[in-house]
Q: What sequence folds into this?
């Protein structure tokens, strides 16, 4: 992946954290795979930590 493509993917991840969280939480296997690929190729540790935090919030909301 070129540096420009890497930058574009990183920008997408930063701008669409909420979407990625929803896909990871509610998407099918293919959707989750794409979301994880975006994180792996364009996310930074802070992006992953923020998405993890949001997923934990969703998990707490689902508990009775």
A:
């Amino acid at each position: 992946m070129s540096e420009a493509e890497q930058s574009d993917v990183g920008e997408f991840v930063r701008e669409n954290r909420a979407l990625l969280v929803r896909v990871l939480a509610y998407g099918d296997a293919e959707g989750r795979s794409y979301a994880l690929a975006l994180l792996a190729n364009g996310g930074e540790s802070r992006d992953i930590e923020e998405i993890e935090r949001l997923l934990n919030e969703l998990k707490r909301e689902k508990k009775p």
User: Anything to note?
Assistant: The chain has four helices and no strands. Residues 3-62 form one domain. The mean pLDDT is 86. Residues 21 and 48 are 10 Å apart (CA to CA).
